[in-house]
Amino acid sequence: MRRRPARAAGRQNAHVVPTAFATLTELRPDQLRGAPMRWPRPSAWAQPLAWEPTTVAEAAAQLGLHSVGDLLAHLPRDTGEGRTITELQPDEVATVVVEVRSITSRPVRRRGMKPLVEATVADETGVMVATFFNQPWLQRAYPPGTRLMLAGKHQARNRFRVNAHARTDAPTGAADAGVAQYPATKGISSTQILAMAQLHRSAVADAVDPLPAAIRVAEALPDAVAAFAAAHFGDREAGRRRLAFDELLLDQVVQLRLREEHQGGDRAPALDGPHPLTDRWRAELLPFALTGDQRQAIDELDADLALARPMQRLLMGEVGSGKTVVALHAMLRAVEHGHQAALMAPTEVLAEQHFATLSALLPGLADTGLLAASAAARTPDGAFGTPMGTSGALLTGSVTQARRRELLARLASGELDLLVGTHALIEEPVRFASLGVVVVDEQHRFGVRQRAALDAKAPVGCVPHVLHMTATPIPRTLRLASFGALDVTALKELPHGRRPIVTHVADSERERERAYERIREELRAGRQAFVVCPLVADSEAVQARAATAEFERLRTGELADFEVALLHGQMHARDKAEAMERFVARKADVLVATTVIEVGIDVPNATVMLVEDAERYGLSQLHQLRGRIGRGGHASVCLLFGPKGSRRLKALAEHTDGFVLAELDLELRGEGELTGTRQSGLARFRFARLPDDAALLARAHARAGTLLAEDPGLELPEHALLRDALARLEAEARAA
Ligand code: ADP
Ligand code: MG
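A: This is the predicted complex of the input protein with magnesium ion.
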């Protein structure tokens, strides 16, 4: 039940019958049609907010709440209980809107406490005493007659202990359907934000609606004014979804337009000639046969590269799925057409690893970048580089100035075919003679600026083909948001020689005994084992202690007959390297470790992994961990200690396909916890929540496609506001 003073009801003109000015004569529909309309005033949203005092203003600034528009775009995330005074139950936590009748303060006997402020407050239903702790100044700030929104706990004898408070212009007793709970921070409460939102409620009518009416109708969505009003003061979820739709639509339009802009015109070198180099490489130099997935990926790339339209493809495949081989093929396609290729990794370590992988795949490559070796690296027929005459180099920050100059000169002259480095390659004054193919590893959001910098490396009037690689399988539902504009190729099949991993979930003492027995069996057969320690809190130090304790326990207990090594994040780099070396060299049989082993350990002889408290890890993380075994010629087993009923652990026991697991992970957890969310840029959405809004995203994607097909430049008058919103977004993207 909602009671409003007549004054407030007057503002709710939805219920009011329209009459002619200053009369009681009702207007006929035809008269109404000609009536003046209210147009939104965007300037109302630019008004600064008057937060008081300065401490609150500072906290508001932290949340980015400077203007009315900022505030209205700051949506509540939840709804709390709104109550009238008589409705309050003992011990209930709720929000009320009341008027101060009288207010006093009295000292508190406990030391260190400031005087207690007590106010007699009332709404239409009753009176109670509100108590404010430690804020004596409130006695002056809230004189009788002040209307307040109070959040707190109702206590016995009609007292209300106040946790958060704000002046409000909302009608007293306005419990409404519920009280919006806003994301707040230290120094500003949800109650203060809500009071401010209510103060500026009328500005909702000034919302500019970028969505053309036709789309709104087709998608059965409310208009922007209704959506903002609902998001704050009504059906919050319905309001939020409409705003999320706009956000996703605009995002998809931006992605599609960028793609069009980049691919429009035939500007990339068409790599459509014969395959002398790549054929020879595959037949004579590649130390293994390609998997079916790799062959198919290569065919897809070849088709892309053969066009003068720049390739924009994403190659997705787990660590070890053999992406580098596919990438190298694309790079060599550039070389056999007289162009160059670059591979960019997010870190120097990864760049080094890539270069090592490339060198293994293309024997002789590593020598060709060395100054001293460059003469020696010439093949008998005088060609420079590998047996095929291909040259490559690694360019990182640790390269000396002299060598760097030399490399850059050879790159600019076209003598150097392949360059591997970090993303800094494109920022720096690195000149290529003719950059034809670029491989970008693990940079999910490749910004407009990077793209422009990259394009500038190609010959004038040309842009390179780009292949993105990622080891994080992104579920299909999220792919549109992250890579709406990329073609996707997935490597699912693991290279030949990989053995399937059998995974068991164990939770009883007997199973634990059995698990150690199984480990000992493998060790006695000459294999090696990982023991992964529990994920303890967020503290590296605690984690390290736990790992150390487990290490001591195992090497004097269950695994006393074997060499056990310890590896955790708090060890000195030297000790870490030594532990790793011992394990790699088979001097240690067992590696007791924290999740530091997640990245980059390749010990094909390791066939068992035991994970303690496995349910504490995320599904994707466990999958990554498990990928450390099953890398050699032997069957492997993964033992997960944790509750048998855990859906996550069950999923791992049932599936080994990282793509299937990524979809399941998405189902079982929210976006926030999803591995790769940050990188994939999903966190950039303000209103949209993925994966919850996955269906909405698919609609927005489809709508963006039809919209651009109809009106590519968004030049129709009904698209003017959409175009404006887009221009702002694109400007932001360009600046990013
Ligand atoms: P990714 O980059 O996807 O993590 P890599 O391309 O680095 O994978 O390959 C991982 C390892 O597997 C490398 O040592 C590589 O030489 C090897 N490899 C790749 N493809 C095959 C294959 N078809 N058969 C056997 N080994 C392969
Ligand atoms: Mg690799």
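The pocket of adenosine-5'-diphosphate (ligand 1) is lined by residues 288, 290-291, 294, 317, 319-325, 357, 360, 495-497 (CB under 6 Å). The CA atoms of residues 230 and 236 lie 5 Å apart.
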